[in-house]
# Entry
Amino acid sequence: MDSKLAQKRSLWSTFLLGIGFMAAVDEIIFHQILAWHHFYDRSTPLVALMSDGFLHAGELIIFVAGFFLFFDLRKRGFLASRFAWAGFFLGLGVFQVFDGIVDHKVLRLHQIRYGVDSILPYDIAWNIFGVFLMAIGAVLYSRARHNSTAAKPWHNR
Amino acid sequence: MSYQHTDWLLPFILVIAMLAAYLVAAYRQRGKTRSWSDRRTACFALGIAVLVIAIIPPVADFAHHDLRGHMIQHLLIGMLAPLGLVFAAPVTLALKALPAAAGRYVVVFLHAPLIGYLSQPLTALLLNVGGMYLLYLTPLYAASLTSPALHTLVHIHFVIAGCLFTWAIAGPDPGPRRPGLRFRLWVLFVSMAMHATLAKLMYAYRWPRGTHHTPEEIQSAAQLMYYGGDLTELVLVIMLFRLWYRNQKTLKTAGPLQRKERLKTTLPI
# Structure
């Protein structure tokens, strides 16, 4: 495997892991511990309920796919760790923003919190946090690229 | 309707007989060039143990008057037990243990058009998750509460459809005319989505209807179905990717003859 491919795979494997990880965090913290999110709220249309099923199934598969790719790279010593961290943060951020816009607003699967005067501050905070995570990922990615071109040619470690 | 306490005896004897047959067959592989894997034997024993837990009177009684109990029983016999039973590779063991003449019958049986049709992932999906939609979103479930014969039939269907699906997706036993891993992953994806959707439909619209179950009971049963289904499906996804991972490793040393096979066994990542 050449260094370019190793970098690309490192980025993608952790990107998938990041998506799955954030989905799990969302499920555990907001659904189970805080119980802010609802399993289902009455405003969800039928078609959204079904698309939620597909999204949910996709998240599980993505997480396992990322896991296998990541450990394959690690085991073979091809993991480019800077790219891997960048991919992980990008995955976290992309899921957070996707959840904040598509799940909460477009599909209206559930809202962030119920029984509050205005949901707007919650939505803004949620998406800003997501964009923040994506920005971290982007900075890490540009640093990783800069590092890989400036440093000695990448070789097997 | 009162649940007969002797009703569990026949299935109990049946599953113990299955376990005994498996253990004898596995034991007889000892001393041969390749003895039977202990891990597979443990898998089968766990699968049988899960079935036994699901049919013993306390669980069966709970399942009979409470939808949450029914759902736990459904998850145990239709999703968790099949994982153990299928990954124990019982057909492979049977082929090894049976005399050649009897083994030939097994092979002929496996290659029968009906089995080929049933073992297709899409057919298995339809029988498995499709059966669940039929049971919970129609008056069938209510009817199964009053008819013992229907009740038994539903349970047998759960076990067989669950095993068929697990086998078609990632089972170690050989399957005739089995499609590639990519297609099987898509079918698994659709199955998971349909299962999650069904659980939410039941939660949202209070299915199954026409029963004595309270809305709260139905909602917590639906949540059990959703999260319990997740766990067992996660195992199945992992097993499928494990197959892909192993294929990829062996293909690295493979010659050009296996190239065509490679297309069928690699995933688009």
Q: What stands out?
A: Helices of chain A lie at 3-33, 46-75, 81-106, 120-150. The CA atoms of residues 86 and 138 of chain A lie 7 Å apart. The two ends of chain A are 13 Å apart (CA to CA).
